[in-house]
Specification:
The chain is α+β, with helices and mostly antiparallel strands. The chain has a single domain (5-124), classed as 2-Layer Sandwich (TolA/TonB C-terminal domain), CATH 3.30.2420. It is built from three helices and four strands; from the N terminus they run βααββαβ. It has a four-stranded antiparallel beta sheet with strand order 1-4-2-3, covered by helices on one side.
Length: 129
């Protein structure tokens, strides 16, 4: 059976606007965002899959997704920023990341802070031989 791959690549991580006076060391925040990104990708990798209809149609592409995480750690908004070109892949990327958020531990430096994570989910089928 063919092995299906789903690779998530990070496009960027953004911290939502927080008063500069309240921010601890900006490097600590950046490091915490990178750690969150890594943990989110780990959780997403465990959940990965490829929509069967996309496999049958041999659809590939990359969907850029924005996730808004509240100060309480909940997903408050999700959106496709740049489409993969295939609705089924875009919807799968949103669902995959939505499922991964509650499984992802938030680093201490981000506790009680709202932030935005932008991730690119790449859908790549193995080459036919």
């Amino acid at each position: 059976m063919r092995r299906l791959l789903l690779r998530a690549l990070v496009a960027s991580l953004l911290l939502s606007s927080v008063a500069a006076a309240q921010d601890p060391d900006p490097e600590a925040i950046a490091a915490a965002l990178q750690l969150y990104q890594y943990r989110l990708l780990q959780a997403g990798t465990k959940l990965r899959g490829y929509p069967p209809e996309a496999v049958n149609a041999r659809l590939e592409g990359s969907a850029s997704v924005s996730l808004h995480i509240s100060a309480a750690g909940a997903l408050t908004r999700r959106a496709v920023i740049q489409s993969s070109g295939h609705r089924v892949l875009d919807e799968h990327a949103l669902a995959l990341l939505e499922e991964a958020v509650p499984l992802t531990e938030i680093p201490l430096a981000l506790h009680n802070r709202a932030f935005i994570v932008r991730i690119v989910v790449a859908f790549v089928l193995p080459k036919e031989e």
